[in-house]
Design brief:
heterodimer; A: two-stranded antiparallel ribbon; 13 helices; 2 strands; globular; B: 12 helices
Chain lengths: 312, 311
């Protein structure tokens, strides 16, 4: 953390703790910061321990490539292939992104490049309100309004009451603010000299936006998309309420689907005995979810770093 | 001032380059359409909730207990209190720890050191771990009291396998701690170095500088961060399901006993088959939750406008 002006007067000698009390305070503050590392360690250890136990009973390849997910069934029909959950998670995320990418980027481009100060002052907070609404409200809306009034009623689609389509689309609106705000920041960070240069060459506004600003902000925009996707993958309650809770390895969006996060929450609600293989599935599916979102986040951080290096 | 100049030149250049062609207008219309769709979605959502729930709003709603069998007289007393208690406990946990961590990272940590870089990246990563995963952490550690397959006991009924309000609050606390740290760090960073240098030059120790100068100067920003974090915490559902928030709780929550919260109550109402009766109840519960969130955010905005320091 280099502060401007810090190099002119060197006060480092004054910052070195002089007494035992000062030293103790520093240790206490550091301990608070270390809690975040312990949280990560706690997550990895808890997920890992139960996952190892789980793989003592179920083969790793049977889990990762198996296409039947029936963990709570008894006897012969019990099966632990995670593919259906993984499939629905990715499939509904794709549906959400199909909604969220054009809307999120459109809103970001408009607010960052076209909107007047006054319009931005009105609409930016509105998008922030969308980001602040609890996810359970989105779930309620997906089931009560979007499925019944809009898809079944207004559009007359033949969808089941619990379906992947409604959950996926509403999920898209849930991640829209993430994409819009990260992309808008990235576009605002593009230096004015680039815009002026393009205008000076006689480019129209649309050309400047699509050929100059957008490419220049691309790494930041990609970071926003990755974060949005990661959020969609990990979202629980919208799916739990609106998509039903049956594993479904199909392209059919009019039927119920179950994602990894929704499975975890749904299983935890039911009373299952601790230590059972079914109980351990919560942890092993959680570990799978954690690994996927963790990887996506590392990618996003890398992209964010890239655009910071260029313009700051 | 440079910004204003740029605005003027940009406008002048845009005008001189002949405005928009047809393609430009189509592009602009598409952009405006995306904004409209987003706003219409939000408006429809709010109107749906309001119109479904308004008839069910009353003070009795906040004082009656929920019932699976009598939705007409059911209330949300336990969930309402549960949410307030969760918020309070969560605040007690995240305020000292979040501020301490932020102060350490901004004022004390040598960012060249490996451990400090690990802490930085780790906080960024934690901010994007799905909330349901925090729930699993809370289930394993605070509810079951297990680490590496070994059981250990914790105070206040935690670690016994039965769900407690405190376990829920701690889980939510860990979930929103990165938010507090990130916002508090920004507020601390906004205090100019000259303030610190002046204080140190007058012979104050580093802690005296932090306590008497940096923290008072960054307090409005930190308070905003805490409120933001708490509003995120009380809107969370998934982690509470994992740590065992119960369905129809007919007693007031205790710190070491069973509990429920508003979002979980909404989920349970929505899951009931008799939606003619439970749907409006769910919507009314959402209204209560949203009103709490609006109040919290108003406080945050007020604090920011009233006390924000201009250096």
């Amino acid at each position: 953390m280099e502060r401007p002006g810090a190099e002119s007067i060197n006060l480092d000698h004054a910052r070195t703790p002089r007494s035992v009390g000062e030293q103790a305070i520093k240790v206490l503050l550091a301990a608070a910061a270390v809690i975040s590392v312990l949280t990560t360690a706690g997550i990895v250890i808890s997920l890992g321990t139960q996952a190892v136990e789980f793989f003592g009973d179920v083969g790793f390849t049977d889990y990762l490539f198996g296409t039947e997910w029936q963990p709570l069934a008894g006897g012969e029909s019990q099966s632990f292939g995670v593919v259906p959950l993984l499939w629905s998670t990715l499939y509904l995320t794709v549906i959400a992104m199909i909604v969220a990418i054009p809307l999120g980027l459109g809103v970001a481009v408009y607010l960052s490049e076209y909107a007047s100060q006054r319009i931005r002052k009105i609409f930016k907070p509105i998008i922030e309100v969308l980001a602040g609404i609890p996810t359970v409200v989105f779930g309620f809306f997906a089931l009560q309004f979007f499925t019944q009034e809009f898809l079944q009623g207004f559009l007359g689609l033949d969808v089941q009451i619990f379906n992947g389509l409604s959950a996926g689309i509403v999920l898209g609106f849930l991640v829209l603010p993430t994409i819009a705000s990260v992309s808008e920041d990235a576009m605002s960070a593009v230096p004015a000299s680039l815009r002026e240069g393009a205008y000076g060459l006689g480019a129209s506004k649309r050309m400047v936006v699509t050929r100059v600003i957008f490419p220049a902000a691309l790494s930041g925009i990609v970071a926003g998309l990755v974060l949005g996707a990661s959020r969609a993958i990990g979202e629980t309650v919208v799916i739990l309420i609106a998509a039903g809770n049956s594993p479904n390895l199909s392209l059919n969006l009019t039927e119920a689907h179950q994602t990894m996060a929704a499975f975890i929450a749904n299983t935890a609600r039911a009373d299952i005995s601790a230590g059972s293989t079914a109980y351990n599935t919560i942890f092993v599916v959680g570990a799978t979810l954690f690994v996927i979102t963790f990887a996506l986040n590392l990618i996003a951080i890398r992209f964010v770093r890239k655009y910071r290096q260029v313009y700051e | 001032m440079a910004v204003a100049e740029v605005e003027i030149t940009r406008k002048a250049v845009e005008r001189s380059s002949g405005g928009e062609d047809t393609k430009g207008l189509i592009f602009l219309s598409a952009l405006v359409l995306t904004l409209l769709v987003s706003v219409v979605f939000l408006t429809t959502l709010l109107i749906t909730v309001a119109s479904d729930g308004v008839d069910r709003l009353s003070f009795d709603l906040l004082t009656d207990f929920p019932s699976r069998f009598n939705p007409e007289t059911a209330g949300i007393a336990s969930a309402f209190r549960g949410t307030l208690y969760l918020m309070g406990l969560c605040a007690v946990f995240i305020i000292p720890i979040g501020i301490a961590a932020a102060v350490y990272l901004e004022e004390y940590a040598d960012s060249e050191k490996r451990i400090n870089r690990i802490i930085e990246v780790n906080i960024q990563n934690l901010a994007s771990v799905p909330s349901v995963v925090y729930g699993i952490l809370g289930l394993a550690i605070f509810v079951r009291g297990e680490l590496f397959g070994q059981s250990f006991s914790l105070p206040l009924n935690m670690g016994t396998g039965s769900p407690t309000l405190l376990a829920g609050a701690l889980t939510l606390g860990l979930l929103v701690l990165p938010v507090v740290i990130i916002v508090a760090r920004e507020a601390i960073r906004a205090v100019p170095p000259s303030i610190r240098e002046g204080s140190l030059a007058l012979g104050a120790t580093q802690w005296q500088t932090v306590w008497k100068q940096v923290l008072p100067g960054s307090l409005p920003g930190i308070a905003t961060g805490v409120i933001l974090a708490l509003s995120r915490a009380i809107g969370e559902t998934a982690p509470l399901l994992l740590v065992g928030a119960a369905a129809f709780v007919r007693f007031n929550p205790e710190i070491d006993g069973a509990f429920t919260a508003l979002p979980v109550q909404v989920l349970n109402f929505v899951g009931e088959p008799n939606q003619d009766a439970f749907g409006p109840l769910a919507a009314a519960t959402i209204i209560v939750l949203l009103v709490i969130l609006i109040l919290m955010n108003s406080v945050a905005i007020f604090l920011r406008n009233r006390y924000e320091q201009k250096w």
